[in-house]
Amino acid sequence: MTIYQDYIQEIEERKIQGLHPKPIDGAELLSAIIAQIKDKNNEYRADSLKFFIYNSLPGTTPAAVVKAQFLKEIILGESVLEEISPAFAFELLSHMKGGPSIKVLLDLALGNDASIAKEAANVLKTQVFLYEADTDRLKAAFHSGNEIAKEIIESYAQAEFFTKLPEAPEEIKVVTYIAGEGDISTDLLSPGNQAHSRSDRELHGLCMMTPEAQKEIQALQAQHPDKSVMLIAEKGTMGVGSSRMSGVNNVALWTGKQASPYIPFVNIAPIVAGTNGISPIFLTTVDVTGGIGIDLQNWVKKLDAEGNVIRNENNEPILEEVYSVATGTVLTINTKTKKLYNGDQELKDISKSFTPQKMEFIKAGGSYAIVFGKKLQTWASGILGIEIPTVYAPSKEITKEGVGLTAVEKIFNKNAVGLAPGKVLHAGSDVRVEVNIVGSQDTTGLMTAQELESMAATVISPIVDGAYQSGCHTASVWDKKAQANIPRLMKFMNDFGLITARDPKGEYHAMTDVIHKVLNDITIDEWAIIIGGDSHTRMSKGVAFGADSGTVALALATGEASMPIPESVKVTFKGDMKHHMDFRDVVHATQLQMLQQFGGENVFQGRIIEVHIGTLPADQAFTFTDWTAEMKAKASICISEDDTLIESLEIAKSRIQIMIDKGMDNHLNVLQGLINKANKRITEIKSGEMPALTPDSNAKYYAEVVVDLDVIVEPMIADPDVNNDDVSKRYTHDTIRDLTFYGGDKKVDLGFVGSCMVHKGDLKIVSQMLRNIEKRDGKVEFLAPLVVAAPTYNIIDELKAEGDWELLEKYSGFEFDDNAPKGAARVEYKNMMYLERPGCNLCMGNQEKAEKGDTVLATSTRLFQGRVVEDSERKKGESLLASTPVVVLSAIMGRIPNIDEYKTAVEGIDLTTFVPSIKELVTVGH
């Protein structure tokens, strides 16, 4: 069969699934299609024309190279087609978004045919995805006196690619659709277990919510063809849990509009809303597509006559509905008044959804076009030697005289791009910042690669200190889906300039280490800004932001990110940590005490948590920062003492050296460069030239939380509360309970020690507990399965050297083998311990899962419905989150222990402890 016939066969197979032909990204297939188009008598010519025009991917894909070249032939008259005129060829080039299309347009614009050059110039004036190779050609032509080049550069200086776009409509009619009650996780919009299909947008779209919900959305669209469907989280926040671009893509696919008639399944401008707004990282992703995110506040706390909050028997605020957004309600969004209406009735001021910057995103069809447009305008103005004309809304700049800086404000000011000398900005200011470290993970990486292709990027920005492509989300099972996707991803990213978990050349062992752990190790400066394609990109050094695959692509391509400086909440500690407690209990208690201190209001949501953790090295401190994703914080920052920071940097250096020794460094010697930077930073701290980052004493915070260690007397468990009568209270991370609540008799079907929340100390706790039980009882028996997945290979190597791994092997019924990885996910578990490959494992839920309906006790981060465990007909699956000793003991006993059983089991165990620094204790006491 020919490659074209293979494609036709694939089309027939997709028809069975109700899918259209897969978009073409390969050069070989498109070349065959072009050959059939040129053959006037070819039986496949009509279909080939459709595939060429409507079904090939733009940007820097191999198909785009072939397409652009053929369109050039048509424009030059070398190929004559009745169906594609030269004018239509220019139109098609204008939709190809950069890379080979820009090269062709420049060839034509700078060529000898004046009329063609003029047409090419007109198209080029609408384009923004130009890189150095493109601008260098324009610059050289300009300096050699080329009038067309001058005309194009003058147009760029005036940003006509933006100013000539139509304005956003003043009124947008919407019809509401309640996607769920309570927080809506991005797992509902793009399930983790369907991660393998994310780069096939139409196929992946079938997994959004349920088939029934999709039909209901279609019915609303049929009933209201002139309106957009607005997806709503009733009594909750939309898009919690992760920054998933695929979630926004799915919403846009079902409710948005097509970005271009010539680019299949790329939709933009979705409209989403939530009673409590949109999760910050998800809202950034909505901005990428030029969409709208609305904070409805349609349910508020009920007040008595004196203005006090009325509470129920559980001491929770009673909510009352201010206005209805029930499915099928027709509303009007007015972008001019920036208000939401039901008919003539004003419901809500939604001006936060329509800041000048967001209006620009809407007008341009997404934030990328604005980022690249600003860079292009700046370049062109520089070439012409003129001041940059004011086109874009000026960045919001907030400076508060006499007010100091929080840690995040200091980091943003240090890394800001284009800030006037001496200017100091506070929270709320819009800032472009340079990004130091970038991380891409494997289930979103294919989309990041697509985004890089679509914005015509071919190499990593030279200002990025280091970037890593992980293999952790697909580490559990080396199935056909992983085998098809991961090698392709690793080759693309390796070629692009990232350090990759797998070596496309096969020269070093596949490293499936958890992405956040690796990023935590390669961050060698607490002043760094980190962007990562996962919501748990929360480092214990620097400030890290979980981001969608597109924002990751933008950071890789430009070395920059744009965002407002977030407000901060200061967290300090007082009292003494009980010897039988683990630091994970302090983390959970922080969430509980914060909610208690602020009457149920989550002051962490959308803000930076500045945690004054002082004495905890990076690995242990990461347990806190990692959890801040579940606290709905935008990010977190650890304030460390000098000696602790130096210790963390030395650990980071040693682990980076291991990566170098394994052959993972690239031709740019990125990893060695990181070690050099770490040495420089250590010298600065030791000499006193630049001590560890601290906020100013007169910094202003949104709130301050003081965690009382004295009142944490029992292990704390985050409970999904699956049977709560109030649906909106289920599957949040706000229900924190102590051990006694469970009465010592709640059955546990499976225990899981793993994910990014554990460190080497946790694995040592497992071995110490096994050793103690063996000494006491002569043997260890598990009454429930225990799955153990170390986050990194380094940890396993260190455990082997220290004698712990041998004991774990003794009591395991299964141990991973990298030479023969599992080819299928486990569906049943025996009452024994499983030593799984380093990586995310059960926490990700895309490969391994617990048995349906199980009660799982895990060290994981995710308790969302269906993530770790799905419901069964007999009962709801539930994933409770706890410390390592609680999980291990529960697996051994087959139930959650009582406090006395727990205290006995951890006697003599070296738990992860924490002592607040003296400096912080003095501050809190004062």
Automatic annotation (TrEMBL):
GO MF term list: 2-methylisocitrate dehydratase activity; aconitate hydratase activity; transferase activity
Superkingdom of the organism of origin: Bacteria
InterPro entries named among the record's database cross-references: Acnase/IPM_dHydase_lsu_aba_1/3, Acoase/IPM_deHydtase_lsu_aba, Aconitase/3IPM_dehydase_swvl, Aconitase/IPM_isomerase, Aconitase_4Fe-4S_dom, Aconitase_B_HEAT-like_dom, Aconitase_B_HEAT-like_dom_sf, Aconitase_B_swivel
E.C. code: 4.2.1.3, 4.2.1.99
Aconitase/3-isopropylmalate dehydratase large subunit alpha/beta/alpha domain ranges (all copies): 410-894
UniProt KW keywords: Iron, Iron-sulfur, Lyase, Metal-binding, Transferase
PANTHER family: ACONITATE HYDRATASE B
Listed name of the protein: Bifunctional aconitate hydratase 2/2-methylisocitrate dehydratase
Source species: Chryseobacterium edaphi
